[in-house]
Every structure is written in structure tokens, then in C-alpha cells.
Amino acid sequence: QVQFVESGGGLVQPGGSLRVSCAASGFAFSSLSMSWHRQTPGKERELVASISSTGGTINYADSVKGRFTISRDNAKNTVYLQMTSLKPEDTAVYYCNTLRPRRAWGQGTQVTVSS
What is the three-class DSSP state of 34? Predict the structure, then answer.
């Protein structure tokens, strides 16, 4: 079955950096676009970044453009999100998924930006 296992979250100070990873299984990873999303309590899940199957097309939400970098390793069925210049408003649970169609969500990884 389709599975996403996110990891790498934690507590980081404002201005700091963090890389989160997502190991995917149960589908043809290298053939599909992938995406990172985030959610805070009481708010809808937000699309943060997406990457095409070969990595040739990448898109970011305006709120993270210039600070976050999405990448993927098709040999490892893993997608990454490198986050720099983190702000308190980046605090959220981060999830990965296929861009379209969306599959069942994993457990996510908590990122907390606080001094």
C-alpha cells in the first residue's frame, strides 16, 4: 500500500535551517510529481512546494520562495525539503504526498521555529 514516512523535524531558532525527508513506497515514485504541504491547528493544509518526476519543474508557495528548496532522489524513493531562514510562521506539521492525485497522508513531521 502507499506509504509516506516523514522525518527530520524538530525545534529550531528563527533564522535557522532544517531539512525534512519523506520516504515513499507502494507506487511508482520516479514517475510522479511530489509535493510538500504543511498544516497548523485550525487551518487548512497548505501546498508548500512541488517537484516533477525528473526534477525539471519546481514550484513554491510565495511564502517560502527563496528560502525553501525541494529535491528528490528517485533511487531512494525519497523527497526532501531544505528550509533556511526559518520564521516562527513556518511552524507546522509538514507532510509529503504525490502532487496529483493525493494519496492517504502520512503522520507528518513537526517543525517548530521558536527562540
Answer: strand
